[in-house]
């Protein structure tokens, strides 16, 4: 990536409408800084966009750094002008107007040991210092390292981590990594993803981990009888949840969960690389030769309060992506889908699954369905 000393801010990110309003607010804050001889340094998302010009990122606020000793000087002017602000415990001064936010971070707290060979960012008639590309990369590395310990205990932290890692990869111009089950063991967040439900709630889809046992148990125990009757891979109890979380083996079975920002598990997906003999024999009748390790089966279940929320579609779509990246050829249903569950049948068909045949098991009549992903 070739970097000029003076960078002109061009183009628009994904959230263009908010971005245009945010930039106008930012220029107003820059005028205030100029009046009181304060020279902030741009970092964070705006700097990432300035360097990469990637149109697929969102810029929801603007981050700057200055000496924390300058905070009182800025606050005095904000009070005079009637501009809202708040001081945060983590050494940040936030300036707010409706849904817009410009944040001043403490240089002493957040920018130590970063390179000071700043660029100049040109925004219309305004100029402002900006962290160099090398400094920005280092800043994101620090942020990722500081957050990694929190991502499994807090979905909000996990979502923020994914955003940071995505922008870090843009700065590094990294190609998407080759995904294997061995790599997922080392870094489960390699296949994590953030999504938005129909009601606007943010959710995190990631592998189940040992520390999820309590939340996982609450999810299983909370399922209604009708939902429980349609899920057959294992019992739905807190005891089983604890056992599963204590014996996770991503090489054999990848268990994935959808988590809301209240830390509640609202969906669960099994992606099993171990096929049962009954499945293999049944598919031979359909003239489909299933193979262990090459093919896989899935079993999803959604919390009753989250039916029709897009949770099921999010889980299935992401699981299909994961299976494709893992070079799975045939993706089948755990023990088919009950013939009476027409809604589920149409749901799978929407994602490309095709009916293969029918069979009876445990007193129900079921339909086998298959999705072909990769030609080996």
Task: Please describe what this structure looks like.
The relative contact order is 0.08. The chain has 2 domains: 133 residues, Beta Polymerase, domain 2; 192 residues, Aminopeptidase (3-Layer(aba) Sandwich), CATH 3.40.630. It is built from 13 helices and 17 strands. It is of the alpha+beta class and 376 residues long. Helix 2 crosses helix 5, helix 2 packs parallel to helix 6 and helix 8 runs antiparallel to helix 10.
Map the helices and strands.
Elements: E1 6-8, H1 16-35, E2 41-43, H2 44-52, E3 62-66, H3 71-81, E4 84-88, E5 92-97, E6 100-106, H4 107-110, E7 119-123, E8 126-130, H5 133-147, H6 155-172, H7 181-186, E9 193-196, E10 202-207, H8 213-221, H9 225-228, H10 238-246, E11 253-260, E12 265-272, H11 277-285, E13 296-302, H12 311-325, E14 330-333, E15 337-338, H13 342-350, E16 354-361, E17 364-372
Parallel strand pairs: 1-7, 2-8, 3-6, 13-14
Antiparallel strand pairs: 2-3, 4-5, 5-6, 7-8, 9-10, 10-11, 11-12, 12-13, 14-17, 15-17, 16-17
Helix pairs in contact: 2-5, 2-6, 5-6, 8-10
Core attributes:
8-stranded mixed sheet, elongated, Beta Polymerase, domain 2, 17 strands, 376 residues, 13 helices, Aminopeptidase, 25% strand, alpha+beta
Please give a quick description of this structure.
Helix content is 37%, strand content 25%. It is of the alpha+beta class and 376 residues long.
What summary fits the major beta sheet?
9 strands, mixed
The CATH class label of the largest domain is: Alpha Beta
Q: Class by helix and strand content?
A: alpha+beta
Return the domain count. Answer: 2
Q: In the CATH scheme, what's the topology name of the largest domain?
A: Aminopeptidase
The arrangement of helices and strands along the chain is EHEHEHEEEHEEHHHEEHHHEEHEHEEHEE
Find the CATH superfamily of the largest domain.
Gcn5-related N-acetyltransferase (GNAT)
Distance between the termini: 37 Å
Helix content: 25-40%
Which stretches of 5+ consecutive residues score pLDDT under 50? none
Based on CA atoms alone, the radius of gyration comes out at: 25 Å
CATH architecture of the largest domain: 3-Layer(aba) Sandwich
Mean pLDDT: 92
Which percent band covers the strand fraction? 25-35%
Number of helices: 13
Counted beta strands: 17
C-alpha geometry: elongated
